[in-house]
């Protein structure tokens, strides 16, 4: 169970445990040999707040210095201050609005987490720290690289269709019930149903991937969204982690970004069951949050319900950076709403609380979000159909869609547990 603490303020979630629990029993579908996999060592080894190497070296050097009466330290050069732009001003005002709640909730949740043994006390001596070296090394794991995205592009070309001109009678979707096949065929625009009671190891695109029990996934490009609609499923919860436009991502080309107009075209109305809970990850940019609240939600027939926050902490319970840092905040935001096609739609089985905080140690890989399945379960009907859009990993019991849906299922992100150390 990935939820370690649940309170009226929110939750403490063990992201690593949430992953590892699905792979305690794992086997190839053409073999009886069973293996246990766990997350690769170092991926969650966040022991100190995030710092650049130069910042860390300066901190260690400062702690090692004895008081020097001569005071020979150089004076710091004052940086020229620039006036914040309108976006920065709005972000500051929003931060000031939620700051007291975030600080109070995080402190309470960390205290409860310590009682459960989830967090340990930080070391007294900064010189014993290594600036998260193990985590930074693990974060460079390549996995499948860009081959999934490139494969999706080839799948689009092969289909020879685009959502704007796709006829209603032309099916893009193939379906495979994965029972006795250890090598996946061409998986693009193909709904894969993995109905096994245990996790499986499958070969695909020249690599090996882990599939959790009872998962379903569809790997397709945004321009082939009709393949998702042809699954003919209605969902009780839809979690969306949009590939927001971002200068850093644009420079590094780490994923394919979508425009605001692309997000408008997401067929939420066709995917959502009556009363569906819609959950959207957003950055701390107020422009994005307003877009979701004021434009996307109404366009999708979604009524706004609540705002939650994910606070990222170290294994010692410290925020990964200063709460008031002007460069980077230690939290991200979730906006929740309910799909209401008509005024007669039934409300959710349990009311969704506002201003909740999710605390966890983050993965060292940038932008990898913690699992929400255990938290959202209490707000959903029994046997709920669950969907994640723009997914980069799989969850047991969920349907996942995206052009990199298997990315973090690659065996490079895991390690085998040998029999003698289980």
Structure description:
By secondary structure, this protein is an alpha/beta fold. The protein is 25% helix and 23% strand. It is built from eleven helices and 17 strands. A twelve-stranded mixed sheet has the order 1-2-14-12-13-11-10-15-16-9-6-5. The longest helix has 30 residues, at 86-115. The chain is globular and about 60 Å long. The chain starts with a strand and ends in a 5-residue tail after the last strand. The model is unreliable at 66-72 and 161-170 (pLDDT under 50).
Tags for this model:
3-stranded mixed beta sheet; globular; 11 helices; alpha/beta
- Coarse shape: globular
Helix % is 10-25%
Cα-atom radius of gyration: 23 Å
What sequence of helices (H) and strands (E) makes up the elements? EEHEEHHHHEEEEEHEHHHEHEEEHEEE
Q: What distance separates the N and C termini? A: 19 Å
Total helical elements: 11
User: In what order do the strands lie side by side in the largest sheet?
Assistant: 1-2-14-12-13-11-10-15-16-9-6-5
Question: Which range does the strand content fall in?
Answer: 15-25%
The tally of beta strands, per DSSP, is 17
Oligomer: single chain
Mean pLDDT: 85
User: Residue ranges: pLDDT <50 for 5 or more in a row?
Assistant: 66-72, 161-170
Structural class by helix and strand composition: alpha/beta
Largest sheet: 12 strands, mixed
């Amino acid at each position: 169970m990935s939820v370690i603490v649940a309170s009226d303020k929110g939750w403490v979630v063990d992201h690593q445990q949430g992953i590892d629990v699905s792979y305690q029993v794992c086997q190839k579908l053409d073999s009886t040999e069973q293996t246990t996999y766990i997350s690769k060592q170092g991926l969650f080894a966040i022991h100190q707040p995030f710092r650049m190497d130069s910042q860390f070296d300066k901190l260690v050097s400062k702690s090692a210095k004895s008081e020097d009466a001569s005071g020979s330290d150089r004076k710091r050069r004052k940086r020229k201050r620039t006036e914040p732009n309108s976006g920065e001003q709005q972000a500051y005002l929003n931060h000031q609005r939620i700051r007291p709640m975030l600080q109070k909730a995080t402190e309470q949740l960390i205290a409860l987490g310590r009682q459960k043994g989830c967090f340990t006390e930080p070391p007294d001596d900064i010189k014993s720290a290594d600036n998260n070296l193990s985590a930074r090394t693990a974060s460079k794991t390549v996995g499948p690289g860009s081959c999934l995205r490139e494969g999706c592009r080839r799948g689009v070309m092969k289909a020879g269709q685009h959502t704007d001109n796709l006829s209603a009678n032309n099916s893009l979707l193939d379906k495979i019930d994965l029972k006795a096949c250890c090598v996946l065929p061409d998986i693009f625009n193909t709904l894969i149903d993995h109905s096994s009671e245990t996790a499986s190891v499958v070969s695909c695109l020249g690599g090996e991937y882990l599939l959790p029990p009872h998962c379903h996934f569809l790997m397709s490009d945004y321009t082939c969204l009709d393949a998702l609609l042809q699954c003919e499923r209605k969902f009780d919860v839809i979690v969306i982690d949009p590939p927001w436009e971002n200068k850093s991502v644009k420079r590094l080309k780490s994923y394919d970004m979508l425009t605001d107009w692309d997000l408008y075209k997401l067929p939420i109305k066709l995917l959502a069951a009556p009363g569906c809970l819609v959950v959207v990850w957003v950055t701390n940019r107020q422009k994005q949050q307003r877009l979701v609240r004021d434009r996307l939600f109404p366009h999708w027939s979604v009524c706004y319900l609540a705002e939650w926050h994910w606070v990222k902490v170290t294994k010692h319970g410290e925020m990964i950076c200063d709460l008031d840092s002007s460069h980077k905040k230690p939290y991200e935001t979730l906006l929740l709403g309910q799909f209401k096609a008509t005024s007669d739609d039934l409300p959710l089985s349990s009311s969704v609380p506002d201003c909740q905080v999710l605390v966890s140690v983050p993965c060292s890989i940038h932008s990898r979000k913690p699992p929400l399945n255990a938290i959202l379960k209490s707000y959903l009907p029994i046997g709920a159909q669950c969907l994640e859009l723009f997914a980069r990993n799989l969850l047991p019991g969920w349907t996942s869609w995206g052009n990199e849906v298997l990315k973090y299922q690659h065996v490079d992100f895991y390690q085998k547990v040998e029999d003698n150390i289980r």
